Amino acid sequence: MKTRLHLAVTVLFVLLLSSCNKESIDENYVPKAENAVSVEQELLVMVNDYRSSLGYPSLNFSEVAYDYANDHTDYMIAMGKINHDNFSARASKISTEANASVVAENVAKDYASAKKAFDEWMASAGHRKNIEGDFSHTAVSVKKDKAGNFYFTQLFYK
To answer: Mapping DSSP to helix (H, G, I), strand (E, B) and coil, where does residue 2 land?
Structure first.
């Protein structure tokens, strides 16, 4: 009887552990969507124009941040929702590869244009703080899902 109970508890524990994994999609096998390059460029110009209007330095484009932003945008599309899943790992990799001391991220979805995404980020204290932050580099990834909805990831670092 004790052996059966022990076995049942062990099975329940394993099932519980596997059911609590919120990241059910393997990031190594996420389909890649095509970038909306003109929207990305427009958003980068808006961010830097805004920063310049405040007397802040423009952010330099980072290929390292762009690669990680693209991976995360594809991941969000695969999940069907915006999220900051795996941000700590992304930030750590950017820190290592770009010698960054601080990394931040803005995400969005379903905004029909760069202007709308920018306006919504500016209306949010946390997103605005990142845009106005003491960063030196950035990259924006914008991609559409199969239904034509835009997903946005912007990474910042210094």
So the answer is: helix
